[in-house]
Amino acid sequence: MKQIQRKLISIAVAGTCGALALPLPAYAQQTQPEAQPAAADEMKTVTVSGSRISTRGFTQPTPTTTLSADDLAKSAEPNVFNTLVELPALQGGTGRTTFTYSTSSGVQGLSSLSLRGLGPIRTLTLLDGQRVIGANVTGVTDISQFPQLLIKRVDVVTGGASASYGSDAIGGVVNFITDKKFVGFKSNLEGGQTTYSDDKNATLQAAWGRAFLEERLHIVASGEYGREKGIDSAGFGEIGVGGRDWFTNPDLQTRSLAETTDGKPQIRFVHRSQPYQYARYGLITNGPLQGTAFGADGVPYPYFYGSNGVPTGTGGVTNCINPACVGGDRSGTIQGGSNLAMDLTRKVGYMRAGFNINNDHELYATVNLAKVTSAFSPVPGAIKNANLTIQCDNPYLPASIVAGCAANNITNFQYGTGNGQFPRNINVHPERTQQRLVIGANGKFPLFGVDWSYDTYAEYGRNQTDIAVRDLSLNAHYNAAIDAIRAPDGTIICRNPVAVASGCKPMSIFGNVAPSAEALNYVLPPAGAFQHSVQRQNVVSANMSGELFSNWAGPLSLATGAEYRRESYRVTGDPYGAGVTSETPNTATYPADPLLNAQIGNNWFSGNYHNANGAYNVKEAYVELNVPVLKSATWGEGNINLADRRTKYSTSGMVGSWKLGGTWTGLDGWRVRAVTSRDVRAPNLSELFAAPVVINGTNLYQGNTLTVQQRTIGNTKLRPEIARNSILGVVLNQPSWAPGFSASVDYFDIKINGVISTLSSQQLVDLCVAGNQEICSTMLLNSPVPNTNYVTLQAFNLASQYVKGYDVEMAYRSNLTALNLPGKLTLRALATHTISFLVDSGVVGTVPTENAGANRGSTPNWKVMASQSWDTDSGSLTLSERWISSGVVSNEFIECRTNCPVSTNNHQTIDNNHMAGAFYIDFGGSLKVSKKMTAYFKVNNVANISPPAAPGIPLGANPALYDLIGREYRVGVRYNY
């Protein structure tokens, strides 16, 4: 194998050097959807996104699903991302309905695609076969920044493609192909809203194209504006937004392992969970006054606990399982308080200019400018879970509480609050701005008596991400403001004189009492938390493909190329979050304050962004061959496809990826395909150069509890993840006995080793104790100097993942003349059945977890999409269905109600492990109003199906799988001239 690889690389380098020596190197890409083969006169040159080969008659072995521009138009979505995420193979992406509970995940408002549930970082997203600058520090591409009206089709390659396209293609490739030769003018105007009169949206798109200079110069341009206003936070309480009634605050009440010897389940799946460590406007959580809550005007009242609970005076509540009861006063519930959907605005401009030097060579340049902004509220209030100490001499306390303190001989008590008196929820505002410029050339040239295609380009990409978090409290200011005393002159001031000198204004947190404007400005500084990051990507790439020679079975074809890429980023946080360094000057916006930690930062309630920077470069070359081996009227046709790529990363050195596959086409439309590949994902900028964060914590080591510094940093020693990806499939393509019918079934098997993962400090200590010397070198646990022990929290190549299953795709097309009806009927169905998705964390004492069918995640056992479309010259009607199979809360849970076994850390018992599936029906249609204008409509989730309860996750439902928005209506008009 090594000798073969060396020979392949030598061919690749020689071919690439030859391409670079030509005046205009690059390769022409014209992809034909695999399920829709072209007529014989159209099969001269074909390239599909699963391969770099561009030659006659090649049938590539890697399955590819294609969505045409017509498919995208029928979906009538304001963002093409919303259409793609419904494809069964795409699981686990991020969009405006995911991570709405997070201030600092880095993916807020990011529309990214994920194949096989492996995550966006393992799915390579391309635009016209070219890489696109990432929209966050993990390098993930934002689909919202693409020029969507000019998309001619989308190829979804559902197999490993690292040998053809490079790093990140472990799960596969999603390639957006634009219409580079569009001529004319077209536009789209669309608007819609939900049945609850929210998430109102509007989209305006226009594109223009024209040829000049006797059709030697071709210019295409487009502009797009889209606004999806989102669904606001419901705020506190068990309240559905806009009349939605499905939120029940589901939760998992968990007893300790020691209590599970009674034959009852350790975990109860409950609804209407009631946390008892805080109330909306405040609750005393310990001591003789425990159970006293505060309401309107600060008036105290006995808190109504669920589960017939009674406070114990020591922090617990009888009949309740820490930290929650069931039922009772749920007005302070926050789980349903995140936005159901973010407010998202897209502004995209795109232009391509291509100049034909002659019929064989084109010079081109593309410019893509985009700005995507979003806004959302991750949580109402700012929860303090029984972690506040209130002094009994606080002048804001009602007289009855002061008297209670005296009667019980206490000077302080523990307190929890949702800070419901804050006038506004925390709100997050990410803004991503992309600048992308590509210059290149493509065409063909004669070599060995045949024409060879080439494509070479250079790309500059810049993405700037600014995240502002407003109405966010500073912890030290909050603590100082709520600790008030009465001054000698009778006024109320902050107790800490240092705080007073630096501008502290007192604030009451006892009941629904509006704070003063001065107190709010002190506790919630208007500037808020802020992060500014800039990423840059520079690429130089050259590719060529053609036929070396022909044998008795057909042409032996080759694609080869080389690429250089540099990725870099720099992140700057505000001084209060990041700490004051040379990169975060303490400006007037964030003045120095003696109460704040100026060196470490971490002063905000959340969203503490830190500074970081880093860069790496990649040099790679590849070769791909298609070798015909069989052509017989009796035995059919067969070919072998193989590829090899060598990649050198400046951080981790050389790594290789390869692909070996083949197809056999038999009689009457039958085809068998198989491919196996070695695929890689290199560590991204964030994993390599994560910003350092230091907090104090404790760890158990050799029987002792140690106070340690927990230092979170990147790891420049990370190695690429290595995957083995295998696919075996059979295709039936329009047999004589079923004209118009095609179907395919493909089994996939993906094993990833050295998965980059981050563990807790205790898990790292345990791995060191177990003998992992690489991890031991990142910590100090026996220092004789006080307060100098530390544990370094960084990513390691520890975990592994193994996913297997199969894809099914079927299509049938027929005209309706036999029924005496106009037009044609198209039936299509796609399904993915994930048999297993095992994840091994690499942590000592744990077992691999099975994620397939665990419906709190992103990988159901079955995900199906089907459609039935009737198209005529005057319009169309489309009915479509989406199905998610039922599943479980966790495959590691053991469901039982009586006679339960004793729970273990790896296998806990639960009374109800079921999560329902969902079946959605969508309906749409179009009407040709005139020769140039078409009106259309679309109704999503016609039956307004509600999501099933998902315990233990924000919103009490899973937006990664289910529709949380409800029935949606859209209407629009398209103009094409």
From TrEMBL:
Occurrences of domain TonB-dependent receptor plug (ranges): 60-173
Keywords from the UniProt entry: Cell outer membrane, Membrane, Receptor, Signal, TonB box, Transmembrane, Transmembrane beta strand, Transport
Name of protein: TonB-dependent receptor
Gene3D superfamilies: TonB-dependent receptor, beta-barrel domain, TonB-dependent receptor, plug domain
Domain TonB-dependent receptor-like beta-barrel: residue ranges: 414-942
Keyword Signal: yes
Pfam family, one: TonB_dep_Rec_b-barrel
Highest taxon in the source lineage: Bacteria
Subcellular localization(s) per the UniProt record: Cell outer membrane
Family assignment from sequence similarity: Belongs to the TonB-dependent receptor family.
Positions in coiled-coil regions: none
Membrane topology: Multi-pass membrane protein
Span of the signal peptide: 1-28
Main location: membrane
